[in-house]
């Protein structure tokens, strides 16, 4: 109760002074074991070198698109996110708290990959820097390495998904995964899909070497893009789950992202691969607002770069932001061909063709007959005089020359001395 009393007191004092409350700072007492602040990193991360956002920024930067980050909250005070994180809502504390604060940096990291603005002296930035972030806080702790959604209250998650769908989000990032199909989550995701929200979900990090396919929800739900993780060499990370729910892959091994309290950190997992796809979806929805969510998903899948493995591990391939925005795909179904109606035959043309055919046949036989007669006349002119001179007796052929006798050398027997 003390932490809520402190929060209410802060709001009342701010209102009395006419000042806007500092929503992004965690309310007193909410973060019991907050993630410590980390320093800024100047190096440009490999994921940005691979996807090269500057190319696609000539066509789209995600302006006008709201991406819901249903996660641990988002630190709206981070310098690269300040001004682009909406108030949002906190469903975890079950109070009238916003969602634009973060105790563990997980949601802040996801939001940074999507929309962090470029900053002087910092190599990292988001893929869709003009997009807005709607923070929906449904957890107070980091998601476990296996991505188990059982650690999150199902009703809290379902309410958060529905809230995001009703709050104008066009893309929803769910960096969570579990092995069980819960009706409440299935229903909430279906509601978001019905509201034309493109839902993007991590496939989870529960895979083991040589292990079989595992279930993954919400990635396996209809209308959801499931995202796996690859490393700098394009190979699937060993923990990234495999199954028919993998639609795309994205960088997810040692990727640089934002942390709470202004810093950066390297992170690994499908949780950080999913926001690269969410950001790409935001770029497409900004450039092509006429497209519905299924059409955007189709573009992302159709324009993916080839991957080094099969579909259950890599889906359609590596997400390609530039092609997703710029390729001139026709997403409509092919038009039906008109029924074939044969034209009536041209009797005059047929008769003319028949006449030419007959004339050609007659001319051919006539030519052959004339040539035959000429050959016969030549034969008669040569053979008859010679026959008369010999009085039709057969001519004798000239005798063959005598062949010299060949003397063969005597056979020899070769003895082997015992």
Automatic annotation (TrEMBL):
Residue ranges of domain Peptidase S8/S53 in the record: 62-317
Transmembrane segment boundaries: 362-384
UniProt keyword Transport, yes or no? no
GO terms of molecular function: serine-type endopeptidase activity
Gene3D superfamilies per record: Peptidase S8/S53 domain
User: Can you supply one Gene Ontology CC term for this chain's record?
Assistant: plasma membrane
Q: Family per UniProt?
A: Belongs to the peptidase S8 family.
Q: Which Pfam families match?
A: Peptidase_S8 (PF00082)
What is this protein called in UniProt?
Answer: Type VII secretion-associated serine protease mycosin
Task: Report keywords, A-Z.
Answer: Cell membrane, Hydrolase, Membrane, Protease, Serine protease, Signal, Transmembrane, Transmembrane helix
Give start-end of the signal peptide.
Answer: 1-24
